[in-house]
Structure to design on (600 residues):
């Protein structure tokens, strides 16, 4: 029941119209990008005459032909894999760290708990992206001398550094989810002699599966969408750095870049359409005490 | 007792390691670099040469005399101030609007407005690169030319200062609105339904319900979004980075202090990490002080109740 019976229908269409008008730039901007990826020319000028349907942009993208002339080639699948590795790595690290810390902050009373929670809030309020100079110096000082490990190390470092940005908020989210579980579940396990770790792993985690999925989804998207950290720390190219470089290139064919952008946007759209409850739940969970 | 310590060390170790490695150590390192002449990441040469507050003196001098740096500071103030208002009141407007319509439409609009935050930064920047492009392929130029308001394309991002400022405020405003929208929506949904229905039966309009019941009851959340977004906007730059990099917006009037730090440390040409680190330290001090003030004002301690039933 949600203000249904008493609300007059009279003004709902007016609110809907206002929402539509406010949303128009978003709808137009993203739609034109996607349309341009199927056209021989950009349609961002809103000229119907500019649209000539073709699949050539997508074919060229998947075949690695990123220039209309010359022999420049890229392996878009390797670039996509690099992006996916970073995103999955960030999701894994964030989910593991936040489920462990979130549980203890929710269920275990200990000296320093409040201080730790205040620290997390301050770190959440103050994005670590401002400390990237220091993060990079640490990277330089710990860089492996053996050339064989350079690539692996850059992947490991970018995943951990990017995951660190998500950890304060994710821990708060996870604590909020653990807070919703009735204490009786906890007590029944402990009374039976189970250790805390067993209770966490076998009782609590299954109960907050939606919360875990929510945090994992957010962390994945954070890793997938990043450009600053992959550009600074990763020695390989990702979809983000590929797009960045090609907008500036003289030979670039804009509709093909639009195809790359639409391709890069696909996971967002997929989650957008399939994980609506998780997204809304995750965002609103962060401010619960 | 020993069992609890073992449990805590298991559960908290990953978090402590991550915070130590990527917040505390970088903070110390950033402070240290700010007291060196580090440039072009020449670690061997500059890391051992301590120069005290030299870089802070340089920043102060630039603030007084360098038009580029003045533009950066001014851009930061305008950007944070205006975008903050858009985030808070835009989020409030969206939350109230979706509160008064049917749930199906409301959910659709909420999801749509999450799109800026969910999109890859490069794609999001690409969308507005084309929208505000300075040539005839720019959507804004095309609309205005079709309406006869302008006769030739205008590179809006190079119109300083308000052309560049408008674009960066618009682009980041859309990203931040979703945060307020979600927080306020969650808060509105916790207001007892009876209050709204009773007012409705008494003949109150949606506007009156908003002004007298809904908004007063979410005052805390308004303050929360205001303070949180202020701190976030102060240090955010990923969504600005490509707009400047691609020359969509003017470099000086499209760069905030946070982006200035990044570009000075990692940008093209000569890189000056000492100066970048000094600016980052100043930002960090503002951010950390702001963080603690925020927690005090928002009375977050009340939310940190001890776990009941722990034994």
């Amino acid at each position: 029941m949600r203000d249904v019976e008493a609300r007059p229908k009279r003004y709902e269409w007016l609110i809907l119209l206002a929402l539509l008008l406010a949303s128009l730039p978003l709808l137009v901007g993203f739609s034109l990008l996607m349309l341009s990826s199927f056209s021989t020319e950009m349609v961002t000028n809103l000229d119907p005459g500019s649209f000539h349907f073709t699949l050539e942009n997508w074919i060229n993208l998947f075949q690695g032909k990123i220039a209309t002339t010359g022999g420049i080639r890229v392996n878009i699948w390797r670039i996509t894999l690099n992006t996916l590795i970073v995103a999955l790595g960030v999701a894994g690290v964030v989910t593991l760290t936040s489920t462990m810390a979130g549980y203890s902050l929710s269920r275990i009373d200990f000296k320093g708990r409040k201080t730790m929670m205040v620290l997390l809030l301050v770190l959440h309020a103050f994005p670590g992206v401002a400390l990237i100079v220091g993060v990079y110096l640490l990277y330089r000082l710990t860089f492996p001398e053996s050339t064989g490990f350079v690539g692996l190390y850059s992947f490991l470092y970018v995943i951990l550094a990017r995951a660190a940005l998500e950890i304060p908020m994710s821990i708060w989210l996870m604590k909020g989810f653990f807070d919703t579980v009735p204490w009786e579940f906890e007590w029944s396990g402990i009374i039976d002699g189970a250790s805390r770790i067993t209770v966490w792993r076998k009782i609590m985690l299954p109960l907050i599966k939606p919360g875990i999925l929510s945090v994992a989804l957010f962390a994945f998207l954070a890793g997938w969408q990043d450009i600053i950290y992959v550009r600074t720390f990763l020695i390989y190219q990702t979809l983000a750095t590929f797009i960045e470089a090609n907008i500036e290139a003289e030979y670039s064919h804009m509709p093909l870049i639009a195809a790359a952008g639409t391709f890069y946007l696909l996971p967002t759209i997929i989650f957008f359409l399939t994980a609506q409850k998780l997204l809304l739940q995750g965002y609103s969970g962060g401010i619960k005490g | 007792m020993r069992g609890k310590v073992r449990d805590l060390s298991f559960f908290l170790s990953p978090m402590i390691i991550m915070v130590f490695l990527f917040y505390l150590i970088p903070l110390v390192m950033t402070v240290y670099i700010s007291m060196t002449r580090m440039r072009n990441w020449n670690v061997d040469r500059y890391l051992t040469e301590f120069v005290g507050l030299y870089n802070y003196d340089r920043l102060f001098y630039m603030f007084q005399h360098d038009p580029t740096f003045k533009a950066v500071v001014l851009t930061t103030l305008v950007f944070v101030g205006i975008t903050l208002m858009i985030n808070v009141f835009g989020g409030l407007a969206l939350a109230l609007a979706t509160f008064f319509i049917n749930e199906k439409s409301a959910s659709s609009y909420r999801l749509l407005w999450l799109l800026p935050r969910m999109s890859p930064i490069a794609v999001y920047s690409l969308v507005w690169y084309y929208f505000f492009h300075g040539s005839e392929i720019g959507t804004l130029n095309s609309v205005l030319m079709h309406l006869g308001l302008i006769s030739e394309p205008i590179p809006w991002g190079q119109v300083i200062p308000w052309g560049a400022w408008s674009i960066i405020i618009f682009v980041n405003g859309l990203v931040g609105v979703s945060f307020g929208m979600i927080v306020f929506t969650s808060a509105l949904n916790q207001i007892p339904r009876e209050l709204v229905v009773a007012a409705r039966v008494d003949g109150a309009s949606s506007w009156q319900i908003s002004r007298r019941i809904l908004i007063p009851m979410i005052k805390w959340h308004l303050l929360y979004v205001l303070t949180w977004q202020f701190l976030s906007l102060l240090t955010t730059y990923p969504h600005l980075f490509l707009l400047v990099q691609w020359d969509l917006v003017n470099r000086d009037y499209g760069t905030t202090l946070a982006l200035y730090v990044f570009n000075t440390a990692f940008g093209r040409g000569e890189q000056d990490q000492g100066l970048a680190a000094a600016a980052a330290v100043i930002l960090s001090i503002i951010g950390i002080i702001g963080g603690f003030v925020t927690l005090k004002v928002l009375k977050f301690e009340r939310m940190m109740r001890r776990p009941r039933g722990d034994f």
Remarks:
- Residues 256 and 277 of chain A are 34 Å apart (CA to CA).
- The longest helix of chain A spans residues 76-107.
